[in-house]
Amino acid sequence: MDKDRIKGSFKQFSGSIKETAGKLVGDKKMEADGKAEKTEGEVQNAVGGIKDTVRETITKK
User: Fold this and answer.
1) Positions in the chain whose pLDDT score sits under 50
2) How far apart are CA 15 and CA 43, in angstroms?
3) Nearest-10 crossing angle of helices 28-60, 3-25
4) Which residue numbers delimit the CsbD-like domain (predicted)?
């Protein structure tokens, strides 16, 4: 598993927590920051998945 997938998953998780906390306390900035971090984590996770796929494809040849 690629490091980007691990880091991306963590960012998704922490972003979700920030987003939820922002909603609970009514802090729009915290909510927006959480959404942004969550999206960043999704992208990073996807990049890691692509790296894994490429690595597996090269290894099979």
Assistant:
1) none
2) 13
3) 160
4) 4-55
Model pTM score: 0.84
What is the dihedral sign for C-alpha 14, 19, 24, 28? positive
Residue 19: other Cβ atoms inside 10 A: 19
Helix %, strand %, coil % for the chain, to 5?
Answer: 90, 0, 10
List, in order, residues 6 or more apart from 18 with CB less than 8 Å away: 30, 31, 33, 34, 37
Q: How far is it, in rounded angstroms, from Cα 38 to Cα 11?
A: 6
